[in-house]
Design goal:
Structural class of chain B: alpha+beta
Shape of chain A: globular
Strand order of the largest sheet of chain A: 1-2-3
Largest sheet of chain B: 7 strands, mixed
Number of strands of chain B: 23
CATH architecture of the largest domain in chain B: 3-Layer(aba) Sandwich
Number of domains of chain A: 1
Oligomer: heterodimer
Distance between the termini of chain B: 126 Å
Order of helices and strands of chain A: HHHHEEEHHHHHHHHHH
Strand content of chain A: under 5%
Helix content of chain B: 25-40%
Radius of gyration of chain B: 37 Å
Number of domains of chain B: 2
């Protein structure tokens, strides 16, 4: 019995390793991105090998996850979807009840051996759920469907925003919204929905935490509080701006090396990148991101069914939200929210959850439409 | 799936719709990334210069480098003031969020005295926010270690190495070299802030103060890279400071030491001057103090101890304490008489024990009852006959007397290279007019003739006068510093030209007075006879015993107890040697000495002996009985044209092995 199980597992792993069903261009893009991340981290951390090693270890773990998940056929994923979604929302509720408070917000669930943020799970289960819901329905979605999707998005997003973690709430909602968008929601419906959301902004402002309001206010005028809230924004812009066209060179960024730049290995690592590699580096990295997103959308177009299409497209497009929000924050264009630069920022959870998403994409790629 | 469907799902249509949406989405994403790139272009290209500058300003700070203070050597290159490495705590105010909270916390790690805090607060107000301010000087190893562990708690606070002053000879040169002290708020208003950036000490007294400008040097600066906490990461660029100049005193440590020891702790002062150039060969004030205590802030206990001590160790008596000179003025008066043609050497006066101004009742005494009989000038100096000088002063008149004595430097500053000299008092009508409503009385002229009355001179003034005489009338301002040198350069002599033409116009006048002072020391009946027995060169001199109080009873005439007299007298002795071509003139003053010759004379002798030994001359045999080897060899064995600082002496100076005679500049 055990022998048989072992033999099956062995065969499975061998298949995974010898005939990986992955999209090579996407894998190559992700590899290049991870390498860029490690190189930047080396400089940003001042050659801290334990950080580099940790991050590289997570990438390896993520790669294994990609290979494993790529073997799970999309229909299986689809059948799991309601349970995964329900499970992750339940975990969110648990966190709201007895989560661990770290640096002022309640995001972490401590399981003894490892602690993690259930909100990370939603980054994947949310688009899965929306895709699952829309899969059997006639598209473009009608108002009723939109309303249901809105509720599906609203409950977890509300819970996450309450933690408070505005960045993740934004990413989670965006992932769901992208699925809705890709399902062909009529433009006029999108327009009217956006108008409603826009009119809600003053209400949202009312419910925001003071520190969140401050971040927005500081963004509008960072010099008003140069040593407090404005410090991040000012120092980050100095780092970016002083990089110039070609950058100061690898490991030559003074802003991060001399600790002027806060959080320079995590949320603000892109400032280090911009300082050291300049506008040329920024454009190159943006092209790489565009390539990865484009490739994701191509996989989505090639997908066999609605569920796969919507899921692949939503994952790819939410990747853009990471890049845009983080890049905009570093450049002083958007308020400071905890959104990492994907696969470049140091930190385990985001790298692993992102790569899990790419594992799903690989699975969708492996089960793509067969052209005659 | 148990869901109801309203219509058949149009798979192909959905796929097409998705394709459109994906392309629209990708286009939007590319636009979004384009917006991002545009923003980076704006920051990195359009505003690059501005941010590059701000990044530079962030990390690069100029930091002053204090120049090393010039060292002070004795004439043979023996170190008298040294720089030794030490550590101090410095605070960059800009980096400290809550100063008083930080200080409270720091106090638990490193003890901070009230003095430290006061000085720190004062300097804090004066400095710019990003200039570091010294908080506590001279940290102990223990304090450094304790701070190092807690350093992370105190951004903006750091242990910084600096050079602190050390005076290896302690009290021996305290009144000459002086000391440096921590710069305080008053100094900051006085000093050029740019020159003193990064410097924590400034000359407070003595040569350290008077030569501050030379000793200080010029500060340099370095551009350092700092991190966000203000901690220096590395030095980008250094502009070295120019160290202060080194000073070479004309004093020999051994002579200074002998002079100090000769006092045996009795309060007084002594000054030795080379008559040929004004170089000071010894200058002591007893008691003294330890200048090292003042460098990094003296403790309240030590300071109170010094301030409340009865014999005032902080007072430089040689420079600041003026007393009646007593009989030491007599040779100068005699010279004046000769120069003015009032007296010829052979003119005699009958001393009967009492001198009365013709037509007045008031009479003035001789020291000896019954007087000295008939005396000429030489004998009057030898016996210190008051009557002779009462008469001479009266004949000269107060105006000529004070103008002549003034030309010898009495009543004004000698111009020595120290600050805070006392002027003393030269009796004159003008002086009295400013202080009294009464006119000048003749009796005041009479007692001025024996150095009493209004007279007040410092040991330095008297030394200056006797040196001027010994140098055959050529006046020099006394000089402690004979040479200076820039770092790694040869010492350059400080020129000290005479301050005026010679005061003695007839060489014979000098011979007569010299003969009188020789007789004081060498002839039977001389007041200092026997004091210099066995000294290898002829010594000429004059004692002075000044009364501290006016006589109110006859006790004075009967009580010959030494202690009683010492309480009433100040003992002076001045002398020079070799008598024919003097090379050292010495004055010693004891604040409480019974008799000038017996009490102050031996001090002068010890100074001369030490000086002689230091120049390599014959060491005088101790206690040679009279009539032994003739002390009267009037020709010095050292060739006359050899400067006091012989080449061998100068070669001992660091960074120099040439023979620079530092007194080249002055001696005609």
């Amino acid at each position: 019995m055990i022998d048989a199980l072992q033999a099956r597992l062995g065969r499975f792993l061998r298949r995974v390793m010898t005939r990986p069903r992955i999209d090579l261009p996407l894998a190559f893009g992700l590899l290049l991105l991870s390498a860029t991340g490690l190189v930047t981290l080396y400089s940003a951390s001042g050659g801290n090998m334990s950080m580099i090693g940790g991050q590289a270890g997570r990438f390896v773990m993520g790669a294994i996850l990609v290979l494993l998940i790529s073997r799970i056929p999309p229909p299986v994923l689809r059948s799991w979807t309601p349970w995964l979604y329900a499970g992750s929302v339940a975990l969110l509720l648990v966190v709201a009840g007895l989560g661990e408070i770290r640096s002022g917000s309640k995001r972490w669930l401590n399981l003894g051996v490892l602690s993690f943020q259930p909100s990370e799970l939603l980054k994947l289960t949310m688009p899965m759920m929306v895709a699952w819901y829309l899969h059997p329905r006639q598209l473009p979605p009608r108002w009723k469907d939109i309303l249901v999707v809105g509720i599906l998005i609203g409950i977890p997003a509300g819970l996450i925003a309450e933690q408070p973690d505005l960045g993740t709430a934004l990413l989670v909602s965006a992932a769901g919204a992208f699925a809705l968008f890709l399902s062909g929601m009529a433009w006029w419906k999108i327009g009217s929905l956006l108008a409603v959301v826009g009119s809600m902004v003053p209400v949202a402002w009312h419910f925001m935490h003071d520190y969140q309001r401050n971040r927005v206010l500081t963004l509008l005028n960072p010099e008003s509080d140069p040593l407090g809230n404005g410090w991040h924004i000012i120092q980050s812009q100095i780092a970016v701006g002083s990089g110039g066209m070609f950058g100061k060179g690898w490991q030559q960024g003074t802003q991060s090396r001399l600790d002027f730049l806060p959080e320079h290995t995590t949320d603000f690592i892109f400032a280090v990148f911009s300082e050291e590699f300049g506008l040329v580096g920024v454009i190159a990295l943006m092209l790489l991101y565009a390539f990865i997103i484009g490739r994701c959308l191509w996989i989505a177009m090639e997908a066999r069914d609605t569920y796969s299409r919507l899921l692949a497209g939503a994952i790819g497009m939410s990747f853009f939200v990471y890049v845009f929000v983080n890049g905009g924050m570093v450049a002083g264009m958007l308020p400071v929210v905890g959104v990492p630069m994907p696969l470049v920022s140091y930190g385990g959870t985001s790298a692993v959850s992102l790569l899990t998403g790419f594992g799903v994409l690989m699975s969708i790629y492996a089960n793509r439409k067969m052209h005659d | 799936m148990a869901l109801k469907r309203r219509s058949i799902k149009d798979s192909r249509g959905e796929s097409t719709l998705f394709r459109v949406r994906a392309l629209v989405g990708f286009t939007l994403i590319l636009m979004g990334l384009g917006v991002l790139v545009a923003r980076y272009y704006y920051l990195q290209v359009q505003r690059h210069d501005e941010f590059a500058l701000r990044s530079e300003n962030n990390r690069v700070k100029p930091r002053a480098i204090a120049p090393a203070r010039g060292l002070i050597y004795d004439r043979n290159g023996v170190l008298l003031a040294d720089n030794v490495p030490a550590f101090r705590l410095e605070v960059v105010p800009e980096q400290v969020k809550d100063m008083s909270a930080m200080l409270d916390q720091l106090r638990e790690v490193v003890p901070l005295g009230d003095d430290d805090m006061d000085a720190f607060r004062k300097q804090l107000k004066q400095n710019r926010r990003f200039d570091s301010v010294p908080l506590k000087l001279h940290l102990t190893e223990d304090e450094i270690a304790r701070f190092a562990i807690n350093r992370w708690r105190f951004p903006g606070v750091d242990v910084v190495p600096y050079l602190t002053r050390r005076y290896p000879y302690g009290p021996l040169f305290a009144h000459v070299v002086g000391y440096v002290g921590r710069i305080d708020a008053d100094d900051l208003t006085r000093l050029d802030a740019d020159r003193y950036k990064g410097t924590s000490h400034v000359g407070r007294s003595g040569l350290e103060r008077s030569y501050e400008d030379m000793l200080h040097g010029e500060p340099g600066y370095e551009l350092v890279e700092v991190n966000a906490d203000g901690r220096v990461q590395r030095v980008l660029e250094t502009h070295a400071p120019v160290p202060g100049k080194n000073l070479y005193l004309s004093i020999d440590v051994r002579v200074q030491k002998a002079a100090t020891e000769a006092f045996q702790g009795r309060p007084g002062s002594a000054v030795a001057i080379d008559p040929r150039n004004g170089q000071v060969l010894a200058m002591v004030s007893v008691p003294s103090f330890d200048p090292n205590l003042f460098v990094n802030g003296i403790s309240k206990a030590d300071y109170t101890g010094y301030m409340s001590a009865e014999d005032k160790p902080l007072l430089n008596r040689a420079l600041k304490s003026a007393y009646p000179p007593g009989s030491t003025v007599k040779p100068f008066l005699a010279l004046g008489g000769l120069e003015m043609g009032i007296r010829r050497p052979e003119d005699t006066v009958l001393s009967t024990g009492e001198f009365c101004i013709p037509g007045q009742q008031r009479c003035y005494r001789d020291d000896v009852r019954g007087g000295n009989g008939t005396v000429n000038m030489v004998r009057a100096i030898q016996l210190s006959t008051n009557t002779y000088f009462y008469k001479l002063a009266l004949d000269m008149g107060i105006d000529r007397l004070s103008s002549w004595m003034g030309s010898l430097g009495f009543g004004k500053k000698t111009g020595i290279d120290l600050l805070g000299e006392a002027e003393g008092i030269l009796p004159s009508r003008e002086w009295k007019a400013t202080r009294s409503k009464y006119p000048w009385f003749q009796g005041e002229t009479v007692i001025a003739g024996i150095g009493q009355g209004y007279w007040n001179v410092t040991a330095l003034q008297l030394a200056h006068a006797i040196a001027t005489f010994a140098g055959r009338g050529t006046p020099y301002a006394p000089r402690l510093v004979m040479a200076t040198s820039a770092v790694k350069e040869r010492p350059v002599p400080m020129p000290n030209p005479p301050t005026g033409p010679t005061l003695i116009h007839k060489a014979h006048d000098w011979d007569v007075v010299n003969q009188g002072m020789l007789a004081v020391v060498n002839e039977v009946g001389g007041t200092a006879k026997g004091q210099f027995t066995g000294f290898p060169y002829l010594v000429a001199g004059k004692s002075g015993t000044a009364e501290r109080f006016s006589r109110r009873s006859n006790d004075y005439d009967t009580n010959k107890n030494t202690a009683y007299l010492a309480a009433r007298h100040r003992a002076w002795f001045m002398g020079y040697t070799p008598a024919e071509s003097p090379r050292i003139a010495v004055v010693a003053m004891l604040e409480a000495g019974a008799w000038g010759a017996q009490d102050a004379g031996p001090i002068v002798r010890k100074v001369m002996e030490a000086w002689l030994a230091s120049t390599g001359g014959p060491v005088p045999p101790k206690n040679t009985p009279e009539g032994g080897p003739s002390p009267a060899s009037s020709v010095p064995e050292v060739p006359e044209d050899t400067p006091v600082a012989i080449p061998a002496d100068m070669s001992a100076m660091p960074a120099d092995n040439s023979s620079v005679a530092p007194d080249d500049g002055g001696t005609p």
